[in-house]
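ok so I'm stuck.
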Amino acid sequence: MDNGVLEPFNPWWKDSKWYLYDFDYSRVRESPYVHRWYPILDKAVKQLFDGKGNYDVLILAGPRRLGKTSLMKKLIENNQNKKRGDFIYLVLDDFEIKKIVKEKGLKHLIMKYINKLKQPVVIIIDEASAIEDWDFHVKNVFDHFTRMGIKFLLIITGSLGIRLIKRASNILGRRGDIPQLSSISNPGIILPYKFSEYAESIRSINKYIRTYGLLQRDIRYKI
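replied:
not stuck anymore, here's the structure
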């Protein structure tokens, strides 16, 4: 039953232009939705692919419909063709995936694919809190991969809620050595943009702000 279950969620394995056909993602990929977390995650992935770390784990929590999935897909789009690593993406609230994980475990599902991919590998587990004991499955993957010497980054996302935050505490003792993540709190909290942050993320507005020095205190006071 679990043969091929992840292929539909990982179109980049076969098609480098996958983002053109992902309707939900293609609508937002050119808009200023990129969150303040993107530069942090992008640098962490690049450090892993460049051999500047062996493994790590980061949990990102935030309200639904905030753009967590789009953030993950932008990471993949911008790093998939570096030929230095690979990505596995899975959603734990998908019926088939959820059933397999409950019956056989997350490690079983991922190990079906890991040898087919370039290493290091970034494993993105979306909507983790859809499974009650998600932390047990994540710890199992983390411990198994470190024992095997696989270089990896685990990114776990989920809706900001008691189930995710409470069980996240069971992962906190498992951190790795990717430099960019050494000072990042775990779990990290993704919040909506403030209006000022959204405005600054639009290129033309940001250019205007910088050109006229509108971030300088004396100019702001004068205005």
